[in-house]
Specification:
single chain, mainly beta, four-stranded parallel beta sheet, 1 helix, 6% helix
Length: 85
């Protein structure tokens, strides 16, 4: 976990990287699950309810709740995120 990253209390994170200043917002009713080498870039924000496995989130990206994004997907821009909303 990177310096000054914020991880919600109900996040389930395994074998993943969280960059500095990233926010992984997780709620009791909508936990986040990150696994199998998911990488969250510096300053990125993940909203509650996301389920990511092997996905790369580029720095400073704001990502709504996503599920079903294939492994090895790179979310580089807002356009990439919109493909999966």
């Amino acid at each position: 976990m990177g310096e000054s990253a914020v991880i919600g209390a109900y996040a389930d994170i395994a074998d993943s990287y969280i960059g500095p200043m990233a926010e992984v917002r997780s709620e009791r009713t909508r936990p986040i699950r990150l696994e199998r080498h998911t990488a969250v870039g510096d300053g990125a924000v993940l909203w509650p309810g996301s389920r990511l496995c092997g996905v790369t989130v580029y720095p400073r990206l704001r990502v709504p709740a996503l599920a079903g994004v294939p492994a090895r997907t790179e979310l580089r821009s807002a356009e990439d995120v919109l493909r999966w909303v």
